[in-house]
Amino acid sequence: MADWANLPNDLIAHIANRVKVIEDFIAFGAVCTSWRIAATKDNFDLLSPQVPFLMLTDEHDDRYQEFYSLSKKKVSRIFLPEVRGSVCLSIKEGWLCTVVNDTGEMNLLHPFSRKKIHLPSLNALLNYHDRVGYEANHWGSIDLAVLSANPSLTSDYVLMVNLYGPDICLAFWRPGDVNWTHIDVDNYFTSGISALLYHKGKFYSMSRCGKVQSYQVAGPNTSDQPILKTRLVVEMDEYKLNPRVVEYYLVELSGALLLVIHFAIPTRHDLNHITKFKVYEVDITRGELKEEMKTLGNLSMFLGHNWASYIDSSKFSGVKPNHIYFADKWLNYCSYLDMSAYNFEDGKIESFYPGPGRRAPRLICPPPWVMPSLMK
Question: What is the number of domains present in the chain?
Answer without folding.
Answer: 2
